[in-house]
């Protein structure tokens, strides 16, 4: 983007019309928790806990000015009332059936909005079992011609907009983790990508077809899985051409969230790391998919690099050069959607003396992911409206593997990510950057 | 301080001569671990893990400039070679005996520096058992006349400087937690304080006599315990008058350190808090002292307020208004100095669904505290040399209950504290503040 | 009892008629969970998990005979169909209201049996706030005359039997923990006790009045709390005179249950113990009562002695002489009835090398206690029917502080307790004792 | 064995002469910890914590007789003074070097017995890398002729006896876990086994050659690993022929020990099990070996079956039919020999309500195994001396997968195992079996 094309301050107008939220994997646990939750909030039945856009505040100016508006009162975002949901799934269950199957939300929360949820009917999905081995669905688009799939998806998008009177759309991938792919020749440029689609190249994953359909329709794409998808030069180029935002990848929830909280804490205090063992147990469909070792490889890479970037062993060799990092995920049905992560962290302090931290995080996967979906949809729509296209690095806060410009390292530290996000908002609205420098309060008091 | 009197950039000269480190409680576990560690590092036998001044780096300029010097190469600090240790204790054990008794460091680390440690002979302490009920020592100054005690301490300081050829001094309290005191009449002004000392007022704690002796000798005072000591108007006034820095209070180690890492993480993600139960077990002398409920009260206050300030319930009533926070400390001899903290944290997310975090931190009290002592001594000496007197809020990073200017709230978030510290250093050396704003990297790339 | 008076084998007839279950504290969490559960099981809506009488089996004869009947098919016990519930409470809520307030069972379990639960109307309780400081109720019998209270309770019992057509009764205390009492003069004999009741002696707790009313009515008394109550010579004497069983004390659930599982394991393997730190958090009414330090003292004694008896330091001084044992209970409302216990156990093995065990038990107080109530009621009724009066040591399995004959030590090891219980049943039915001796299987195979 | 051939009571004479302890894997962590420990105990430098033979007592007669001798004073066992150690290893390090490498015992424990440990020189081992893929040693017997290996081992045994003036021997396998083998044709009979050895059959593991050499030399064989080895009909037959005891398999330490403590506790209380997830991290050579999935399969089978036998789902379908059991082992170098096991146990109680138990066992593999070696050597020698040959089921207490007679199920419950062991000792010495029946104490007191 160019600065002069970026709208700022009073140029940023309140959004008008409806915002379509298009979700590949619309019948999954995360999607249904997200959708049902938005509706419950709209009806005043629950609160959007975990959502920065809805509950977060932003400090402006000096500490003693006490100017701390809510983020949504500070910068014009789409309102919950204007969201319209749709999407694709390999199972044809409607939103109520799918949410009931997911067993994340209680009957007490689902029943009052049953009427609404039943209106969410998934469109047939583009699916290829080579990419997700442990699942099988029958609500899929026929044939194996990739270009035909892209065109069908684009028609789906157009029809959805028309049928729902939708003004703008955002696509957010809440589907499964695909098998591990590396960026290769067909991913190097828009031209190569288009050629590969035409050639039904096996290195083109279904998620890439969704992204292509989105970008060609002028719709931003958010990648909630660790899939490669838009994290390739071809899509970065296409996003710039079409002036559309892209964001990803892999929602940062559960154990990795915890890791990006704790690791910055250890590093702040210059405590050394000898080893970090992480095990996860979960019993939902995500756990089943990750029981396939090819899908796990995709996830594992996303999970392992986090520490490396936060701890900067090249700067702190005596602290972080040789730590042993191991991550395992186990399918464990008794846990259901209630993922549990156990971390065993071996650190060392003064003179090298060892200490240990054990963290048992009994979390809920979809409960943690749902508010991220909401925030990402609203912030990405904002970006689209004001002309911030391409990689949205300021949204790193939400991702396990934040996309970033080539030549820059990704930022994984949750606290730096939050500061980056908020200072970006301050910049957009013409407010001073916050630095937490505080010496000025203490000057001139002699 | 006034800005024009503050030395900055090239005005900040490398320190010359020796720096005396005067420690009330010099024979305790923290002190001996600190002193023995510094000597071991000086002899190349170990590394000062945990010390920001020795191992920390500071990023300057833009992310892609890769200017990241070590802090100690960036701003002139006293070198470890120039530190000379002395202090007071209620037991007359020398440094080697005291360190052996503390059982923090192994024989393997103590034996090679036995010769050095044996030279650390404590001076007789000012002690009053009403303030520390579970200890009793016999290496104390005679009499109960407070003014006489202050004068004796000042003579100790002067003699120490002369005998050791010391140029500058810093006093750092590593003694026990005293019983709980509230700021009252005798603490309101320098005049009232001096009058109370003359009157042997029972509201004047021994630690205050040390602080008074320090400040009147032009020596900065660092408060490593939760004791009231310099956190009263009288000492703030005196510090300004004498142009001496004061810092405190209560070294942030163990469970509270963990709390100020985790709580900002929960808040970053707008996750609600229903309850936080913290239990500590430790078996060292500190544990014994805190088994007295009056001393515990002092500690408890220091520990409880942390969450309140980080979570800001006034801004986030739906998330943090009604959480239940409980902290207990238990004397448990099998653990020795190896403190263990167990946290049971009840949080809630999207639509109010509950989740749990359990943290078991098997840490070592003195190992965590020793590098804080080192950093605080070096940074406070820096402050003294360049004219930053009074409360050192920029050192909040190191304390459970950071001292702060009246009318400002204390900053407890470890990550904001670190940013504050580093941006202060950047300011002092004339470098730009870091804001983590990153949009500029992405502009102009169309 | 005398052996010739004890009915055995075919003398043990199936019970006839209804069995009244009389519960002081009938509106509490344990009672309502017990009562609602029995009804749910009767209606086929749930299973009596945790109940030895309902689900347990008993191996008879040799391992290769495979004779393993259910306990309830082996020895004639009252059936669930024949139980009739009643009791006293200081709050006048009916069974449905009380169960809803307790928040142990979900609406899904309570609603289908609402009609039944509403029929449980508590009789006004005998209550004295000096014995339970943190509670206050208004559904109490008037006056403070102890003898009058006993008579009123006896009338309640008689009326209950008549109104409900009940054949036999058992009283089981599910009320609160009273303040700590020691066995003193008024507890030494039946005569002294009766005199003390007449004199309104303050050492006579309300629970003793219930027990007196029960025994004088020929009704067995089971003590589910750590209260002294029947664990005094006076009641042992009275039980013998009246030929009525008594059993107690303090239901073994949660952390103490875990302790009597783990400690026998450590001892089996001759692993030494250096320390055992136990902390409990719970948020129900029980937690509130135990926040009063006098009530906690009663509980603490019950909890602490367990290890001492299991580990036998007098036999194993090198292993168990000097361990440090600490138990704390904390009121922590977020946990509700879902008690959580955390144990930190410091053990040592071969040559004294230290190891650690941490156990986090996220249990549910009433869920663990309810099946104990059921078993105790049925087994105590059996004892009554066949002439086993006085202390029921064979039921030690269910109690934190098993009552026992003077001169014998109590048995705390859960596995020995279970063996004792089952071998008692085998004895009663004329089957061989099981010894787990197995050499015979291997003999004669040459 | 036949009863009339079994020596009992006064026929059991105190052992005379020296007892040779022959260890395949003599240079491993378990072996060196065992050997060094015995020597340290002999010199009065440490205590044999964890050893039932050395510290255990045995109750005789009634509870109020207080006859509770030490086991070693009750039944004549070889004394520690009479043990002589030898063995084989694929590395040629002597006992001191090997123990130092293992890093289990501190320098403080090894240095005072360095002279002794250096005398332990391993004989060259029989090794075949196809059976232990992640190790490689060079101190091995040449060639691949299996019969030649057996003969070489027999010569080693004979020479060891002669050179050390040893009267009797016991062989105890402390080597690595071999890849998974199933009992097949060559394992069906002595004849088939001998034929397979002659034919260099690849289904004959190295451990079987050791066992063959031992039994043919009249030396009992104890199997400390999960290897198949003597747990096949061929060796059971051979042991009977040669009248030699065999015992196995897989020392029960760490997480499985914990499991056989906890599972009987859950079952005692009829608490249901929904899932049990166990993860292990360890960094020693054992961890490295088990990182090979074929070796892990051998271990996994040994670990998984434990629950099945204890919980008896066929008897308790509503409690134990459908639990999900998962065991993982991870090589994690920071932990060294200090194995750590984390168990996440999902149970359910009354009406099916779920509860959770988490156990973190920070143990030390070799410290737990060493006393088992000692006990097994002494008890197996006892068995040999008194004519108890073949499978020693009474020693099930020590094994993860206790060997048992065909047609009988193995006993995994630690408490039943201990009872079995002690009642066997009582039987041998002519004492009454203990049943924990206690009603007799309460009879006749009317």
From TrEMBL, chains A, B, C, D:
It comes from Desulfacinum infernum DSM 9756. The lineage of its organism: Bacteria, Pseudomonadati, Thermodesulfobacteriota, Syntrophobacteria, Syntrophobacterales. Belongs to the myo-inositol 1-phosphate synthase family. One of its GO terms (molecular function) is inositol-3-phosphate synthase activity. GO terms for biological process: inositol biosynthetic process; phospholipid biosynthetic process. This is Myo-inositol-1-phosphate synthase. It holds the Pfam family NAD_binding_5. Residues 254-366 form the Myo-inositol-1-phosphate synthase GAPDH-like domain.
């Amino acid at each position: 983007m160019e600065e002069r094309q970026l709208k700022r301050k009073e140029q940023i107008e309140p959004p008008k019309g409806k915002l379509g939220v298009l979700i590949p994997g619309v019948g999954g646990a995360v999607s249904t928790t997200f959708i049902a939750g938005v509706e419950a909030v709209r009806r005043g039945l629950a609160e959007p806990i975990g959502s920065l856009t809805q509950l977060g505040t932003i400090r402006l100016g000096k500490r003693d000015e006490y100017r701390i508006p809510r983020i949504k009162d500070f910068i014009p975002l789409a309102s919950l009332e204007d969201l319209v949901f749709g999407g694709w799934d390999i199972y044809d269950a409607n939103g109520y059936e799918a949410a009931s199957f997911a067993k994340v939300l209680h009957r007490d929360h689902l029943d009052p909005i049953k009427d609404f949820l039943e209106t969410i009917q998934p469109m047939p999905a583009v699916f290829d079992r080579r990419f997700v081995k442990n699942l099988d669905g029958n609500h899929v688009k026929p044939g194996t011609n990739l270009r035909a799939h892209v065109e069908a998806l684009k028609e789906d998008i157009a029809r959805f907009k028309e049928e729902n009177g939708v003004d703008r759309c955002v696509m957010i991938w809440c589907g499964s983790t695909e098998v591990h792919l590396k960026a290769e020749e067909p991913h190097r440029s828009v031209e190569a990508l288009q050629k590969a689609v035409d050639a039904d190249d096996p290195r083109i994953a279904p998620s890439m077809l969704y992204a292509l359909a989105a970008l060609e329709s002028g719709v931003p794409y958010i990648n909630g899985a660790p899939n490669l998808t838009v994290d390739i030069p071809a899509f970065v180029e296409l996003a710039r051409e079409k002036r559309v935002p892209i964001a990803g990848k892999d929602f940062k929830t559960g154990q990795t969230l915890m890791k990006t909280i704790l690791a910055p804490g250890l590093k702040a205090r210059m405590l050394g790391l000898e080893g970090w063992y992480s095990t996860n147990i979960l019993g939902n469909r995500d756990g089943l998919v990750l029981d396939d070792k090819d899908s796990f490889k995709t996830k594992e890479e996303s999970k392992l690099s986090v520490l490396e970037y936060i701890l900067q062993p090249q700067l702190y060799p005596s602290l972080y050069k040789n730590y042993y990092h191991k991550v395992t995920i186990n399918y464990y049905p008794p846990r259901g959607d209630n993922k549990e992560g156990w971390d065993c962290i071996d650190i060392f302090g003064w003179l090298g003396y060892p200490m240990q931290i054990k963290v048992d995080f009994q979390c809920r996967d979809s409960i943690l992911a749902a508010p991220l979906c909401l925030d990402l949809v609203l912030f990405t729509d904002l970006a689209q409206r004001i002309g911030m296209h391409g990689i949205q690095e300021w949204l790193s806060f939400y991702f396990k593997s934040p996309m970033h410009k080539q030549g820059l390292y990704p930022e994984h530290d949750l606290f730096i990510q939050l500061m980056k996000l908020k200072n970006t908002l301050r910049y957009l609205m013409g407010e001073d950057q916050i630095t937490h420098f505080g010496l000025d309060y203490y000057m001139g008091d002699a």
